[in-house]
Amino acid sequence: MRETKMICTMCGKEYLGEHFRCSCGEPLELIIEKKKSVNISWKKSGILESFSDLLPELKDCGSLSMGEGLTPLTKIEHAMKDGLELFIKNEAINPTWSFKDRGSYLAVLDAINRGYRNIGTVSTGNMAASIAAYGMRAGLKTTILVSDSIPEEKISPIAIYGPRILRVNGDYDRLYFRSLELGKNKNIYFANYDIPIRVEGSKTIAFEIFLQLEGRVPDFVIVPTSSGGNVRGIEKGFRELEACGLSNYIPRMIVAQALGCCPVHRAFSSGDNQIKRFARPHTIAHAIENPFPPSGNAVLKILRENQGITVAVNEDEILTAQRQLAKRGLFGQPASAVAFASISKLKNEIGIKRALVVAVLTGSGLKYPAVLKEQPSIVEATDIDSLQDLL
Ligand SMILES: [Zn+2]
Q1: What pTM value is reported for the model?
Q2: Average pLDDT taken over every residue of the chain
């Protein structure tokens, strides 16, 4: 058994055993004892086997896996003309149509391995559906805490899996921390956004990109950013590839946010080390509308350490990018379009010319069809006898 410990991303305090967060309030990161020689390979059996040398030792005895991860890396041809070699990592090809399934799969396995019978999460979107799917599939009592302002259209894609859904009145940001406290007392494993094992799930995105590019490392990876757990995971993945000698470079991370809720972009642009709560967040990119990201300070640290960049785009740019992506056959939710919209900013405002860029399409556009009323749908009508003229 390889030794594992946890280390605080900010104060460096170390922990052994089961912990979700540092006593200083900042997120923890898993450190797994290094093997002498590390091998990663693309195995159809799934992410756990493909990347076992760099993941915690978890057993999937009850075939919990539904084929999460191992998603396509799709080339965007037109970008070549502009000097960019651009790929989209399509996380919509996951069992519940978002990248969250990687972390949910590992978190539910971790909960089972630790003997939990109850699992939960705090979310109103992709993660709620993902934890509901994996929790219920594992036969665990699954509780989803949502804010009391959640619209009905967001409830039904969670409710279909059959978890207990509790609308909670009160400060939604506080709910993240409160649920972790209560989980300890009530023996419920709260697999919230950026707990260490979820970050391990996001790491596998980096490993796959590395394999799909046949050992090349991108210059930039663009990640739509909400809680910050995903960008932390992807950066950690590339960092570990470098640490074990498989690569010699860590890509610069690009945190992409909507102008209507961009706490990381705002703090980073002002040179702050601490995230401030973003007042009155409002964006069509609901999946990344987190006004006070729990991994925000840790993300700022990563950005400073690896010459990262932040980009924020407005609502029109998001909708335009969603259509542009669709014209290339990829239908992402608005949060994912934020990453694609950031590319033109990279070229025009930041002056990046020749580069290998990967943008992460985090979730499917079919998840929240209500948003689509913002997009034009042009439909012509005719009768069968006039069809010939029209064609
Ligand atoms: Zn700490």
Answers
A1: 0.96
A2: 94
